[in-house]
């Protein structure tokens, strides 16, 4: 039996039909049409499906669609600023070579965003912990760590910093 | 895909009523275990009763007497709590080590306990701290030591229609040091090969007034190594006494071979990690 779920996606109100057995991932990809979140494992172990729900990173493959009622969901498509200006994290990922195949990237960027929103000046250890739930098979992670560090400095407006 | 009803009660009374009246209803909080179980067809609930919106079930209440953890408090809330980090370091360490931040943002300590896996990270420190479970059901409210929650792998002691509502963790006595060591093959997103917890309360002369040693993945449930505890109590805490206790804990453990590790290795690591946990907790000089 279907239900209409009312929630916010990337700042816009949405009312979407959902079945109880659907995950938020399924809802976002197939009903809302936002395919940035990927299904990597379907079991909450890889993080490719990561989206933000009320600011917190979650594995949308395990998040029941019906639980999205009343929540603010942010996907990778919602990160860019007015006129499509890339978020500093997105710019940093590109500039530092932190994107190869790109499959992990939406989830990785959102996990990083959730961290920087809570901890504007994270230590490397804190970055590693925050991203531990996002697997990347291509980069070896070093460029990703550099990119998050650079974006963190950029967001804090550090003098002389550029992404 | 199998379908089910997904219900979202807003009060405990509503939740209990739904569980009582619906055949095959399964309570769910963060869903990180239940949802995977349903997908893997290990669970076929007629209905899922979500506890996420139930008022009063979530949150950390701090007092002089200790902590009260609402059953649907997430691991992330525990990870982010300075009070837990400072006063209950073993619990902080354990909950911070569950899965990944994404899992911790939704997974709950109540769900971790009620799932009753022998590997449950939060169970070991709660055994160390002599935590008490409070449950509410058709017959009213009852409380019992957390140890009694676990009956076997995946089997908890809650009656039909009963819900774990909170976990009471008494404040450790002054002079108490303890920690939890999660032995894993990788740094995150992993169940433990072995979980080792140790907690000692020392008096002014360094004599052990109370000892607690708890193990995960060393038996059908998370458990206390009482023989080892008895070997420590009433004596000064030394490398020798800790070694004896660790040997006893290792000998008595019901470890098994599994694909994550072999029995002989688990047994050996109990012996190795008990002293290391006490060192890390500051109870034993390195």
Keywords:
heterodimer; A: 163 residues; alpha+beta; five-stranded mixed β-sheet; 5 strands; B: 286 residues; 11 helices; 32% helix; globular
Low-confidence stretches of chain B: none
SSE series of chain A: EEHEEEHHHH
Average pLDDT confidence of chain B is 96
Q: Please state roughly what percent of the residues of chain A sit in beta strands, choosing from under 5%, 5-15%, 15-25%, 25-35%, 35-45% or over 45%.
A: 15-25%
C-alpha Rg of chain A (nearest Å): 16 Å
Task: Name the pair of protein chains with the most residues at their interface, and give those residue counts.
Answer: A-B, 31 and 27 residues
Task: Describe the strand arrangement of the main beta sheet of chain A, using strand numbers.
Answer: 2-1-5-3-4
Total E-strand runs of chain A = 5
Portion in beta strands of chain B: 25-35%
Structure description:
The complex is a heterodimer of chains A (163) and B (286). With 163 residues, chain A is α+β, with helices and mostly antiparallel strands. In chain A, 33% of the residues lie in helices and 15% in strands. A five-stranded mixed beta sheet of chain A has the order 2-1-5-3-4, sandwiched between helices. In chain A, a hairpin with a 2-residue loop joins β3 (50-53) and β4 (56-59). The longest helix of chain A is centred in the C-terminal third of the chain and has 14 residues, at 105-118. The radius of gyration of chain A is 16 Å and the shape is globular. The model of chain A has no long low-confidence stretch (mean pLDDT 96). With 286 residues, chain B is α+β, with helices and mostly antiparallel strands. In chain B, the strands form four sheets. Chain B has a five-stranded antiparallel beta sheet with strand order 4-5-10-6-7. In chain B, α9 (226-232) runs antiparallel to α10 (239-252) and α10 packs antiparallel against α11 (263-280). The longest helix of chain B has 18 residues, at 263-280. The N and C termini of chain B lie far apart (55 Å). In chain B, 50% of the residues are buried. Chains A and B meet through β4, α3 and α4 of A and α2 and α6 of B.
């Amino acid at each position: 039996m279907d239900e209409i779920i009312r929630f916010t996606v990337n700042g816009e109100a949405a009312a979407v039909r959902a079945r109880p057995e659907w995950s938020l991932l399924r809802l976002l990809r197939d009903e809302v049409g936002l395919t940035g979140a990927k299904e990597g494992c379907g079991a909450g172990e890889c993080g490719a499906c990561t989206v933000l729900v009320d600011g917190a990173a979650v594995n949308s493959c395990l998040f029941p669609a019906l639980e999205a009622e009343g929540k603010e969901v942010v996907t990778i498509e919602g990160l860019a600023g007015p006129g499509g200006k890339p978020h500093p994290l997105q710019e940093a990922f590109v500039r530092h070579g932190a994107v190869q195949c790109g499959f992990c990237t939406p989830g990785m960027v959102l996990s990083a965003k959730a961290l920087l929103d809570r901890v504007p000046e994270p230590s490397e250890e804190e970055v590693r912990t925050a991203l531990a739930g996002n697997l990347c098979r291509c980069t070896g992670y070093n460029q990703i760590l550099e990119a998050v560090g650079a974006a963190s400095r950029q967001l804090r407006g550090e003098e002389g910093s550029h992404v | 895909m199998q379908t089910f009803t997904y219900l979202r009660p807003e009060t405990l009374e509503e939740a209990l009523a739904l569980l009582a009246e619906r055949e095959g209803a399964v309570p769910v909080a963060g869903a990180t275990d239940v949802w995977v179980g349903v997908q893997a067809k290990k669970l076929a609930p007629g209905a899922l009763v979500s506890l996420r919106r139930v008022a009063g079930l979530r949150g950390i209440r701090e007092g002089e007497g200790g902590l009260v953890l609402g059953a649907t408090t997430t691991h992330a809330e525990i990870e982010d709590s300075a009070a837990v980090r400072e006063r209950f370091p073993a619990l902080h360490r354990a909950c911070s080590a569950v899965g990944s931040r994404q899992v911790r943002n939704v997974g709950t300590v109540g769900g971790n306990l009620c799932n009753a896996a022998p590997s449950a990270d939060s169970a070991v420190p709660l055994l160390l701290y002599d935590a008490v479970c409070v449950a509410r059901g058709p017959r009213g409210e009852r409380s019992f030591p957390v140890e009694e929650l676990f009956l076997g792998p995946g089997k908890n002691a809650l009656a039909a229609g009963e819900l774990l509502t909170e976990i009471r963790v008494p404040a450790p006595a002054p002079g108490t040091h303890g920690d939890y060591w999660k032995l894993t093959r990788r740094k995150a997103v992993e169940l433990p090969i072995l979980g080792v917890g140790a907690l000692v309360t020392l008096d002014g002369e360094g004599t052990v007034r109370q000892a607690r040693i708890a193990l995960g993945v060393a038996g059908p449930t998370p458990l206390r190594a009482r023989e080892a505890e008895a070997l420590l109590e009433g004596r000064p805490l030394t490398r020798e006494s800790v070694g004896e206790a660790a040997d006893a804990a290792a000998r008595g453990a019901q470890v098994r071979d599994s694909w994550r590790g072999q029995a002989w290795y688990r047994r050996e690591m109990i012996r190795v990690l008990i002293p290391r946990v006490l060192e890390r907790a500051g109870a034993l000089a390195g």
